[in-house]
Amino acid sequence: MREIMYDQSSVAIAVALFVSMMIVVEIGYRLGTRTSGKASEPTKAQINTIQGSLLGILALLLGFTFSLALQRFDARSVAVVDEANAIGTTALRAQLLPDPLKAEVTDLLKQYTDNRVGAATVALDHEEQRAVLLTEGSQLLDKLWIKAIESAEMDGGPVRSGLFIQALNDMIDEYTNRDAVLSRHVPELVLMLLHGTFLMTGLLVGYASGVSGHRASFVSYILIGLIVLLVFIIIDLDRPRRGLIEVDQKSLLDLQRSLNRP
Prior knowledge:
By secondary structure, the protein is mainly α. About 80% of the residues lie in helices and about 0% in strands.
């Protein structure tokens, strides 16, 4: 099932969160002012205690969600390096193949590397363009595997075709792994729970201020701003190729330059 928030801009989500927090703080303040004259000191102390507990729950959820997003970002970074290493190893072992196949396999590997570099620049929400590149990559892998079969028929020894086939198999595995890692992100249910906790916290902050007879202090709004900023970073980490924080593609780019070097 297609998720709603994943297709939205991280900036738009952060702005919507900030505006909604301002609204619920104001609503909470107005509700609190209606009961400020009736609230006893024990009631105010209980409200402050619940407010502190809710802030603690919010901090726990933020830490948990940030950890999830960071783990997925690290996994995508590692996948890029692993795929570049797998392609590079295959290219080196292709030099062991018989002359009729060596040039053909090397040319296919150059095309495949160009395809993977191009796929890294396409955002995941551009599904049609990404599907074309993935199909092209799969076709190039099929052609390489056919060449591997030909090399085994020409020279089935472990030194020439054996090492190349092993490296090519690892390269195919890394292709699948990198595509799978890109599709993993923080579940939308967790983000919804986080958003709901934000709103409840803002409502209680405003209510506590209203019961106390004064609006939320400037420090409270600084806290809200910092929370929204942290949420923006979490979402940006979780949106590969669409935000300010992107996975470094240096390994693939260096490999591309190396393969195209005379």
